[in-house]
Amino acid sequence: MVNLLIVGPPSVFRQHLYSSVSKEAVINVVAIVDNERSMKKILTMHEPDLILVHGAEKRLHLVETINDYHAKGKLMFVLSSINKDAVFYGLKIGVVSFILDNVTPQCLVRSIKNVYENQYVVTGELVRTLLAEVPTDDFFEKQLFNHRLKKHFSLSPRENEIAFLVYKNKKNIDIAERLTLKEKTVRDYVSKMYRKFGVRKRLDLKRILEETMQPNN
Q1: Does the structure show a pLDDT above 80 at 136?
Q2: Which residues face 77 on adjacent strands?
Q3: Could you tell me which residues are beta bridge partners of residue 121?
Q4: What is d(CA 200, CA 194) in angstroms, rounded to the nearest whole number?
Q5: Does residue 207 sit in helix, strand or coil?
Q6: Which of 126, 46, 139 is nearest to 91 (CA)?
Q7: 35 neighbors 59 (Cβ within 8 angstroms)
Q8: C-alpha span between 103 and 127 (Å, rounded)
Q9: Are 92 and 74 in contact (CB under 8 A)?
Q10: Cα 120 from chain centroid (whole Å)
Q11: Helix axes 157-167, 183-197, angle to 10 degrees
Q12: Quick one: pLDDT at residue 112?
């Protein structure tokens, strides 16, 4: 039996989304609360397995109380919209389910059961939106590149950026466009790096940068 506490308005069960929850034999709705005082009382009296926060982006102030009084409870966020701040805050405090209120009642019930069985649940629409926020443009490779490069050479942040693009085989004109610089400025940076790396040709610079990225360096 899943003991479920819903944080939201008393009218929440009039919404289509929740039409199947109370009908499920394996789900016991402990209470529906929407204020700190009532929630403290319920959390003191009961130990719900799951706490579902309806319209979580509007009730983040109540989540702190949940953590204070029921730190072991699993948290689910039902969001009215794709609110990235609410999601990132939820991830920080250990929320294990993020779904939007436009999913089907069956999807909500399935999510409750999955979370109870220690699975993480995130709806596809949220995943696509959040992934769009993840830095791209070789972000993780660039972090590794900078980490390894600074062990051997002392470059400025701008020189690091240009060195990475040289390593990626970009021409000066492409680098200038990418970094919103003049092509001559890029040439000057590259010439300065020649001196720092003790080389005279771009090919030799690129070779050193490639060697820097080898696992044993």
Answers
A1: no
A2: 53, 98
A3: 97
A4: 6
A5: helix
A6: 126
A7: no
A8: 14
A9: no
A10: 13
A11: 90
A12: 95
**Strand order of the sheet with strand 121-122?**
27-33, 2-7, 50-54, 74-79, 97-100, 121-122
Looking at residue 164, its amino acid is F
Rounded CA separation 85/57 (Å): 8
Confidence class for position 62, pLDDT limits 50, 70, 90: confident
**Rounded CA gap, 114 and 43, in Å?**
22
| Residue appearing with tokens 């991830």 | 91
- The residue-averaged pLDDT of 50-79 equals 86
Instruction: Give φ, ψ of 30 to 5 degrees.
Output: -65, -45
Structure tokens at 88: 């990132």
Long-range contacts of 12-19, Cβ-Cβ distance < 8 Å, separation of 24 or more = 12/54, 15/101, 16/105, 17/78, 17/101, 17/103, 17/104, 17/105, 17/108, 18/105, 18/108, 19/105
Question: What value does the mean pLDDT take over residues 110-118?
Answer: 93
β pairing state of 74-79 and 27-33? unpaired
- Cβ(181)–Cβ(167) below 8 Å: no
Q: How far apart are CA 28 and CA 85, in angstroms?
A: 30
Beta strands in 65-153 (DSSP E): 74-79, 97-100, 121-122
Q: What is the DSSP letter of 80?
A: S
Q: Is the pLDDT of residue 163 over 80?
A: yes
